[in-house]
Every structure is written in structure tokens, then in C-alpha cells.
Design brief:
434 Repressor (Amino-terminal Domain), 113 residues, two-stranded antiparallel ribbon, Cro/C1-type_HTH, 5 helices, single chain, 14% strand, Helix-turn-helix transcriptional regulator, alpha+beta
Amino acid sequence: MNRRIEHKWRLREIMAARGLNNISDLLPLLTDRGITLSDSQIYRLVGQKPERMSLALLGAITDALECSVEDLCHFEAVSSNSRLRRTVGSTAEPISLNETIRPRRARIRPTDR
């Protein structure tokens, strides 16, 4: 049984709770703490779930928004004991490819002349 760590990135929610509705509101807060990022980097940071980031950036975000890492990112260990994956919201059982109906094998015959 394998376990993998999933995380939910809540930066946009925390920003909205603090009254910061635009990425341009976060930029000066990070600049005051010595972090210089471009507009596109801030946009990706707020809008997407980051796979990796520096601890200096994480510390600056938590200090600027007066929150903890646990508030910003929710971690959950998920067990994955099979290699079959389900889509999000899917309640159907996974289909085993060995037991499904396969196409009929084509038979190639010589042409009659």
C-alpha cells in the first residue's frame, strides 16, 4: 500500500479574508519583506497550486497575511493501494481491462479472382 501526500492551496481564500482581492495588493507586502516576484509569478502563485517554493517566500506570505502554514496549505495523506485511478467525483468502480469486452479479431482472407 502506497501513501501519497495531497495538499490544498488556500492563498486566494486567505487573501480574500484579509481584504486583498487583487494580486497587486499582495505584491507590496512581499516586497516589504524582501521578496521580489513578477506579476506573472504572483498570478501563478495565487491562482495555481504550487508544487515547490522557497521557505523564504513561504515565510514572507505567512508573515504578510498573518497566518500559519496550516492555514495556508491543508495537507492530507491518501492511501493508494491500486494502480487504477478514478476521476474526481466519480462513484463508479474502476474497470479492469482484462475483463472488459474486447474488439473481435480481424480475419484477413485472400481475395477471390
